[in-house]
Specification:
single chain; about 425 residues; alpha/beta; five-stranded parallel β-sheet; 17 helices; globular
Length: about 425
């Protein structure tokens, strides 16, 4: 049963404690996989697909015929929902697009910044036993809006050697250019180094298991990555007016992700706390993934009773959750008091699942308290910036000796001479 903590009776350290993630040490195995893919390319990918996915691959890349088959096999209703979600995601992320600037000066200088999209982006989509078309949309649409030249997706196949039809349907609608039937650390290695079939990319985004996370960590620097994602989290701030069944359902929507997921309610009402506790216990038994959710609730579930809603927001800021629900009649009164959260869900009719699938804001979010300094995946993740500087002869002459002075203060006389030699060339 989910535990209730009364702030008036216990130490804050007990409230703010996070369960230490039990991370298996997979670094050695991942290093071995990466080195094998570097050395043996597609042969290594086929080897690991057979070993881990129990799939004997022919062609590694998804063909046009496979795309057509997938589109034909999903329902019209599902296609309608995917298209609706894609439109919402596009509408939101188009507002994030940046533009360069030029600053001409009267002194003969021109300064500026260019916004340049990444040439190739790699998107990892978990698959095999489960399909996540929402991840395809959330990671691909911002890349497309940014102007990425080629979007390359990798996802593990089922035992039949095929990619799940909903994933391929979402990829087609989102405008993914190429899809490869590979998963795990070997897929990350293929994207980072390239193989005979899989192109090398400039950045890798998308969630995955411990092997995928470790592979992303190891290839970072050779390529860019989005983040190292931890277990999913939800924190709900609610007064006593909320329906306890709604709150319990929202807590369990994250607890069912995995056994290390975190589901927390912070409320100013002990009455609501007790009702939610009972509702969680009742609803938990009915979940398809009840075994997973039960461990999550037992290990990481909390109901915290705070003195008032301002104190509840302080607790939320201290925990910096991935998902924050403000289940209140007047959520906008509290929105700007929130300092640290990945995505904020406002009011009593906004369950976190809206953000997972349909609303439009991205669902790839900072976890494990990293919302203190990190942001959701966005168009910004798929661009880079270059700056440029131009000085006329007169403009350069006015600053050359200052450059020399600054350089000598740092002991870098060669830097200074690169300026003064031009003065000499000008006869100054």
């Amino acid at each position: 049963m989910i535990k209730i903590y009364d702030c008036a009776k216990i130490e804050k350290s007990e409230i703010f404690s996070r369960m230490a993630e039990k991370k298996p040490d997979v670094s050695g195995t991942v290093t071995e996989i990466i080195e094998n893919v570097k050395a043996n390319g597609d042969a290594a990918l086929r080897e690991y697909s057979l070993k881990f996915d129990k799939a004997e691959l022919g062609a590694i890349e998804v063909s046009g015929a496979e795309f057509d088959e997938a589109i034909a096999s999903v329902s019209e209703d599902f296609l309608r929902v995917i298209k609706r979600a894609e439109a919402n995601i596009r509408r939101f992320h188009e507002k994030q697009k940046r533009y360069g600037f030029v600053l001409p000066g009267e002194d003969g200088t021109v300064l500026g910044q260019r916004i340049i999209p990444i040439e190739k982006a790699g998107i990892y989509v978990p698959g095999g036993t489960a399909a996540y078309p929402s991840t395809v949309l959330m990671d691909s649409v911002p890349a497309k809006i940014a102007g990425v030249g080629e979007i390359v997706m990798v996802t593990p196949p089922g035992k039949d050697g095929k990619v799940a039809a909903p994933i391929l349907a979402a990829a087609k609608i989102a405008g993914v250019d190429r899809v490869f039937k590979i998963g795990g650390a070997q897929a990350i290695a293929a994207l980072a180094y390239g193989t005979e079939t899989v192109p090398r990319v400039d950045k890798i985004v998308g969630p995955g298991n411990a092997f995928v996370a470790e592979a992303k960590r190891q290839v970072y620097g050779l390529v860019s990555i989005d983040m190292i994602a931890g277990p999913s989290e939800i924190l709900i701030v609610s007064d006593g007016k909320s329906n306890p069944e709604y709150v319990a359902a929202d807590l369990l929507s994250q607890a069912e992700h995995d056994k290390n997921a975190s589901a927390v309610l912070v409320t100013d009402s002990m009455e609501l706390a007790k009702k939610v506790q009972l509702a969680v216990d009742s609803r938990l038994k009915k979940l398809l993934r009840s075994e997973i959710a039960e461990v999550s609730i037992e290990n990481n579930g909390k109901i915290i009773v705070a003195e008032n809603l301002d104190a509840a927001i302080e607790i939320a800021n201290a925990l910096a959750p991935e998902h924050l629900e403000l289940c209140l009649d007047n959520p906008f009164d509290y929105l700007y008091k929130v300092k640290h959260a990945g995505s904020i869900f406002m009011g009593r009719n906004c369950p976190e699942a809206l953000g997972d699938y349909l609303a439009g804001p991205n669902h790839t979010l900072p976890t494990s308290g990293t919302a203190r300094f990190s942001s959701p995946l966005s168009v910004d993740d798929f661009i880079k910036k270059s700056q440029f500087i131009y000085y006329s002869v007169d403009a350069f002459r006015d600053v050359a000796r200052d450059v020399d002075l600054f350089a000598r203060a740092e002991g870098l006389t060669g830097h200074g001479e690169s300026a003064t030699v031009r003065l000499e060339g000008l006869g100054i």
